[in-house]
Structure formats: structure tokens, C-alpha cells
Design brief:
It is a single chain. By secondary structure, the chain is α/β, with parallel strands linked by helices. The chain contains 16 helices and 18 strands. The protein has one domain (2-416): TIM Barrel, CATH 3.20.20. It is 38% helix and 15% strand. It has an 8-stranded parallel β-sheet with strand order 17-16-13-8-7-2-1-18, with helices on both faces. It has a two-stranded antiparallel ribbon with strand order 3-4.
């Protein structure tokens, strides 16, 4: 009966018709002065039927909530590369000035990011796309150059693309696998085969954190830029076909891995006591896993091994250690505090990681486990005051800081993600 009653609580929250009513139930569980990041969704393209409210209506209501709760809320704008318009506006139109992306005036994203001062972008690749989709590359350049934070879903969950697997999803667009061909070197490597078939499993293809190396690592990003269908992509990143290099990349992209890969991946980290890659988090606490080389030399088949065998906690931590604008939050997974606290304490002992971990709740999806006030009380009781301040106040302020015109600075009062 306990499990049933907890799920009934989720349904009760889902019955509220307006975002303001849901937000009031959330904010009242936290101390005065608390600020929240609010993350919307766009489920139109997940092949599960039409949403009850159009995307633009959802965003409009969120903006109205922002105006009423301006001292409490930092809304993000959801982005799906398959969306071409929202209402009577194009979703994402831009021009290139030098190596910069400039949003067009009639662009929906410009309206919400610059005119209405939304705080960041939210993506959910499990709905059926890669985070490095070509349509997203110029947007990520815009975000990186303006310090705009991105929040990405990174856990195996219950929301994912519901249609059949597409043929083009059988192979990874960037990573390769070793075919062990000794006779013909041209056939030694081919695109990494992705064997998942069922929708529940296919989500892993898009959610896998190693995909973000394709954005953050110039040697992988150049593969995407070189084969882009839109010539403007090559212009934007300064692609040189003779040297196969880029003048500018996305190493400075500010991105947060929501749910830190999931509690199951944290448990895998502890279990993999014979794994060489996982041990690098301990052996090389300021670098983690070398993704493409071994002892300074390029190793072509390494990414295939990491994709198949390394836990997501180790991959995410390595990206955080290697890129100063990469973060991860403990939303949803913090409900299982007994399981995550030992590794959370370990992570907070690392001088780099402790500055990149964010407190989070995932309200109200997590309500089948605990209420928000229950989770926060548990965290405050089991972390030191300095540790809690670091993940719930200091780090979120750093994550939300941006240089886009028209955005006020974020203050360091109580801030929860």
C-alpha cells in the first residue's frame, strides 16, 4: 500500500492545470529566499500522441510565472532539433557574424532567451535525438559564446521515444568499432553498431554521456562539422578541409548532466573494482579517463570500449575534470541517499568535482519516493554545512552566470536546482 499511495501523490500533482499551482506546492517546501530552476518539456516528437497543450502555450505560461515569481524562478527553454516553429514564429533562425551566432528578430529562441530573459536551455535526448544533432550545433555555439547553461537529461528513465527504431540509429554517427581485419586496413574499423531494438533500450543510444565528448572534444566535433549538410556549420567553426581542423570549438560549452547518470551507474562504479578505466578516477583525480589516447598516443578503438564497458559516473566525472564548464546534478537520485551518500562524499573531496555538483530534486517525479522537504532534510542532516552550501548555493550560482545581454547577475541566496 505504501508504494501505491506514493504514486497516488504523483497523480495528484499531475492533475493541476496551471504551472503556478504546481510551483507553489514546490516552493513552499523550501526556506524563504529559495530560488529554483524550472525545466519544461516538449513531447510532441516522441511518437506518443499530441500533447494536451501546444509547446508555445506552455512556454507562455512559464513566462507569466516568471514575471510573478521573478525572485524565485529561473526558467529554461526546452529545445528539440526537430521543432521548426512555435506558434507563428520560426523556432531557430540565425545569421553568422565572424565566428558568432546572432539570432534573428523573428526567432522564438531569441524572444525567450534575450527578450524574456530565460536562464538556459533544456534538452532531453531520450526523446529520439543526439545532443550533437546538426541542427543544434549553431545553437550550442551561441550558448557557449554567451555562457548560457544547458541542462541535459542523463539517466535511463520512463520518458523516451516510443516509436520503432529507425534504420539510421543502427550505427553511431561518430564512434567506430574495431573489425579485427588484419589484411585490409580500410576495413579494420566501421561505425559502432548499436544493437538496441526495444524503445526502452533505444533511449540509451541518445542518453549515453559519452555522446557529449563529440561536442567537447575538437577531434570528434570536427567529424560532425566536416560532414554537415549546412555549409554555414563549416563557416561557423572555421573548418579547414586541408588540415581537417577547426578554428573554434565547443570546449567552453556550459552543460549539466541531470541525474548524474543515475544511481544504478553509481553502484556500477563501486562494483567495477577490476576495471582500468574506472580506477582512473582515483589514480588521476584531476583528469580521469583519457578518452582518445593512451600514454599520450592516439588509440582509435578506445571509445568503443568506453561506450560498452565504463559506468556513466566515471564518464561524467572525467568530462567534468577536463572541462571547466561541465556540471552534474543529483536530482532524483538523491532520494536513495543511503546508496549515493558514500560516493557523493567521495566526489566532494575532489577539489574540482566539488565545484561542479549541484543539488536537485526532480519535483514532482521523485514524489513516489519522498517529498522534497524530506529529501532536503535528509541531505542537510547527512552533509556538512559547507558541503550543502557548496552544492545548493555556490555551485548553482556559478552554473547560472552568463554573459548574454539583458540578463541580471544571479545572487548567492539559497538556490536549489
Amino acid at each position: 500500500m505504501g508504494i501505491i499511495s506514493r504514486y497516488v501523490n504523483i497523480l495528484r500533482f499531475a492533475q493541476y492545470k496551471h504551472q503556478k499551482d504546481i510551483f507553489s506546492k514546490l516552493i513552499n517546501q523550501y526556506p524563504p529566499g529559495t530560488q529554483m530552476i524550472v525545466l519544461p518539456m516538449d513531447m510532441k516528437f516522441m511518437d506518443a500522441g499530441e500533447p494536451k497543450k501546444p509547446f508555445e502555450q506552455q512556454m507562455s505560461e512559464l513566462y507569466e510565472l516568471k514575471k510573478r515569481r521573478s525572485q524565485q524562478i529561473h526558467p529554461f527553454l526546452f529545445v528539440d532539433p526537430r521543432r521548426e516553429s512555435a506558434g507563428n514564429k520560426a523556432f531557430f533562425n540565425y545569421t553568422i557574424e565572424g565566428s558568432k551566432v546572432v539570432l534573428d528578430n523573428d526567432c522564438f529562441i531569441k524572444e525567450y532567451m534575450e527578450d524574456k530573459a530565460f536562464a538556459g536551455f533544456k534538452i532531453y535526448p531520450a526523446l529520439g535525438y543526439y545532443p550533437f544533432d546538426e541542427a543544434l550545433l549553431p545553437l550550442w555555439k551561441y550558448a557557449a559564446d554567451n555562457g548560457i547553461p544547458i541542462m541535459t537529461h542523463c539517466i535511463r528513465g520512463v520518458i523516451y521515444y516510443r516509436g520503432p527504431k529507425k534504420k539510421e540509429w543502427d550505427e553511431h554517427p561518430v564512434f567506430e568499432q574495431n573489425m579485427n581485419s588484419q589484411d585490409d586496413k580500410s576495413k579494420k574499423y566501421k561505425p559502432l553498431h548499436l544493437e538496441q531494438i526495444e524503445a526502452n533500450d533505444v533511449q540509451e543510444i541518445f542518453t549515453h554521456p559519452l555522446n557529449y565528448a563529440c561536442l567537447l572534444k575538437p577531434s570528434l566535433l570536427v567529424k560532425l562539422v566536416a560532414k554537415a549538410k549546412d555549409d554555414r556549420i563549416r563557416q561557423l567553426f572555421g573548418y579547414d578541409p586541408e588540415t581537417n581542423t577547426l578554428k573554434t570549438g565547443l570546449e567552453h560549452l556550459k552543460i549539466c548532466f541531470g541525474h548524474f547518470g543515475g544511481e544504478e551507474e553509481w553502484e556500477k562504479y563501486f562494483e567495477k573494482d577490476r576495471d582500468n578505466y574506472t580506477s582512473q578516477i582515483i589514480r588521476k583525480p584531476f583528469q580521469g579517463i583519457e578518452f582518445q589516447s593512451y600514454q599520450g598516443k592516439a588509440r582509435k578503438g578506445k571509445l568503443e570500449q568506453i561506450w560498452h564497458s565504463v559506468d556513466w559516473y566515471s564518464i561524467i566525472c572525467s568530462l567534468m575534470l577536463q572541462h571547466e564548464n561541465v556540471y552534474a546534478d543529483i536530482s532524483y537520485i538523491l532520494h536513495g541517499d543511503a546508496k549515493i551518500l558514500p560516493l557523493l562524499h567521495f566526489s566532494l573531496e575532489n577539489e574540482v568535482l566539488k565545484k561542479r555538483i549541484l543539488y536537485g530534486s526532480d519535483f514532482y517525479v521523485v514524489r513516489n519516493h519522498k517529498s522534497d522537504k524530506n529529501m532536503m532534510a535528509d541531505m542537510r542532516a547527512r552533509l556538512t554545512e559547507l558541503e550543502f552550501d557548496q552544492i545548493a548555493r555556490i555551485n548553482p550560482v556559478s552554473y547560472l552566470q552568463r554573459s548574454i545581454p539583458g540578463h541580471a547577475d544571479i545572487n548567492d541566496s539559497t538556490l536549489n536546482i
